[in-house]
Amino acid sequence: MQNDSGKQRYAVTDYLYWGMMLFVNVPNLLELVGIDTMFKPYRVIALVICAFVWPKFVREAAVTRQFSRLLFAAIFYGSIVTVLFGGRDMLANVPLIGSILILYVATFGVTSRRSLIIGLYASVVSFIVSAYFGLLAFNQGEYRLSGLFENPNAIGFGGCFVLLIVINRNLVIPNGVRLAVAVGLIPIMVLTGSRNALVGMVGCFMSQTWRNPRLFNGLLITGLVIAGVSLYFEKEISRITQRAVFTRLTNRDVIARGGAGRIAVASAALQVGYEHGFVGIGFGQYREKYHTKFFRERRTDGTLRKLGSHNFYVTLLTEWGFFGFCCFALMMYRLAKATEGMGLERDFVIGFLAVSMLNSLGNDMVGMIHFWVMLGVCVQFIRFAHEDELAWQPYQNA
C-alpha cells in the first residue's frame, strides 16, 4: 500500500510479522534464562496475526489456495490418525502442529513484497545475534555447543536459510554485507557438528547457481560426496566428532549409545509404518511409542532415550500415512511448478526446496520451525508474482 505522497504504507499485520520473524530465532534464549513456556513470543505474535488475517486467508486466491488445501488436508488426516491411534500420547505434539498452522497462516498478513523482505532481514539479524549470544554466553566449551545449540541440526538448518537469504540476488543487500554475514555463519555451521548443515549449505549455493552448469554440477557432486561418505562412515565420523571437536551430547544427556544411527532409526520407523499399512500412526507417535522397542539407549539417569525417525520422508509415510505423504509431495511439486516465469524470486523458492529436500534425508522437518516459516514466505513470493502478472495483463492487451 502507498499513501498520497507515494511512500510505502504498512498495515498492523506487517509490523507484527516483522516481530514474529525477529522472535522466531530466540525461543531457546528464554529457556536458558529460566523461562520455558508453550506461549513463546513468536507463537503469540503469530496467533494475533492469524486473528487479523483469518477471514482473508479463508478467501485466499487460487494461486495460494492450491498449497494451503494440500497442507491442511495432510495435517487434518494426520490429526485423525493421531486421535485414533495416539491414545494418551496424542496431545504431546498439539503445540507443535499448532505452530505449523499459525506460522504458515501468519505470512498472509504481509501486504507487500517489500514487507516480506523486511521480515527476512529481521530473521537474519535475530539469527546471527541469537547464535553468537548463545555461543559466547552459554556454551560450556567441552560440550558440542550446549544450551542454544542443544539441537544442532535445527540451528544448522536455520543457518542454511539465513545463508539463502543473504546470497539470493533478489534481495537488495550490499555485497560487503553478504560476504560478512556468510563468513560469520561459517563457524556457527561448522561448530554445530551437523553434517546436514554442510549439505544444506551446498544446496543453498546450488540453487543460486543453476544457471551456471559447470558450477552447479560441481556443487552437486560435492553435496552427494558429503552425504554419501557421511552416511557410509556414520559411526566413525560420529566417534571422531565426539572426541576431536565437541562432544555431541550435552552434560544433561550423556547416553550409553547403542548404535542407533540415522539409517537404522529410519529403517525401524519405516518398518513400523509398513506394519500399519502406511495408514499412519499419528504425529510424533514413533518417538513416543516405538523407538525404545528397537533401540536401548539409556541416559545417565537410567531412562530410555526416545528419538524420532530423523528422516522427514519416513516420518510422513509412517506417522502422517501414505495420504499425508502424497499431499505433501504434491504441494512441494506445485510449489516448484508455480515458480515458472518468475524472476530472481524463483531462485529463492528453488533454494528453499533444495535445502529442505536435502535436509529431509537426515532431519525431521515437523519440528523445524524455520521450514514452516520459509514455506509461508515462498508461497507469498508466488502470490506477489501472480499479482504482478495480473496487474501487467491490461498493458499487454492494450
TrEMBL record:
GO molecular function: ligase activity
Compartment(s) where it occurs, according to its Swiss-Prot or TrEMBL record: Membrane
Tree of life domain: Bacteria
O-antigen ligase-related domain residues: 182-328
Keywords for this protein: Ligase, Membrane, Transmembrane, Transmembrane helix
Pfam families given in the database record: Wzy_C
Name listed for the protein in its UniProt record: O-Antigen ligase
Organism: Stieleria varia
